[in-house]
UniProtKB/TrEMBL annotation:
GO biological process, one term: synapse organization
One Gene Ontology cellular component annotation held by this UniProt entry: neuron projection membrane
Protein name as catalogued: Ig-like domain-containing protein
PROSITE patterns (UniProt xref): IG_LIKE
Pfam family, one: V-set
Keyword rRNA processing: no
Species, as recorded: Vespula vulgaris
Record keywords: Signal
PANTHER family cross-referenced by the UniProt entry: DEFECTIVE PROBOSCIS EXTENSION RESPONSE 19, ISOFORM A (PTHR23279:SF2), DEFECTIVE PROBOSCIS EXTENSION RESPONSE DPR -RELATED (PTHR23279)
Residue ranges constituting the Ig-like domain according to the UniProt record: 46-140, 152-235
Extent of the signal sequence: 1-19
Record bears the keyword Translocase: no
Amino acid sequence: MKTLLILVGLLLEIHLYFTESHAKHQQESSSKNIVESLNALEGKGDDVLEGPISEVVAQSGGKAVLPCKITDPGAGTITWLRRKDRQLLTLGTNRHSVDTRFAVRHTNTDWALQIQMVTLGDEGIYECQVTSHPIQRSFTRLKITEAYSIIPGAPDLHVKQGSSLRLECQLMAATELPQYVFWYRQGRMINYDAEPGVKVELTKSGSILMVNKTKPTHGGNYTCKASNAKPAYVMVHVIEEEEKPAAMHGGDRRNLSPAILASNFLVSLLAAVSWRIPSFTSLYPT
């Protein structure tokens, strides 16, 4: 009988132990729902994605905004993480990462992730997660481009002296408007020079430099430098018009004066009739 009672007591203690452990586990799970939801994704590679992937393109040094649309604002806590290194970036409206470039731009239904001064290392897939039941996830692939400038006609452009000159600086692969576009001639900025006949205009895709009547001083190396793109260069050669000397006109009679023409005519006439005039020796033979 004593043995039976001891066995019953041991069974009760074991039951109570497992019951308390299960209750404790449930409590920790409910209080750490965010951690559990993030840990549930451990071991999955970037190629295992559960849902469509949107795409955002940003240029190096610029700003990237990754959208996260939520249909039910009260569904749960919204988190952003970077898939390639499983780094938790934001938790609600708070930044979790030590990188201060990350922030959440929150509206009623959008919890967009904003990244300032993006670099090529920021490329990859980002995940927006709602800790609801079931967990909601959306994915965004961020691509980074390197903006650069081009000048049509480069590297060498020849213009006639006195003709007009038009240089256009076009920004390529740019996702943002530049804060400025500066023009340089031989290393000297000319945007704000009060030079007659020279004009600079800012366009949606870059800038245009115009010269009404080119002079030899307008020749040289021109540089177009935008605030958010690699610069472009062109060498402008101004061809000077030189007057030909008189010897190079090939005896053009239209360039001779009337006196010279008359003199030439008399010389030719005397030469033509000189053979008709008898010599003195033939008139008075010795």
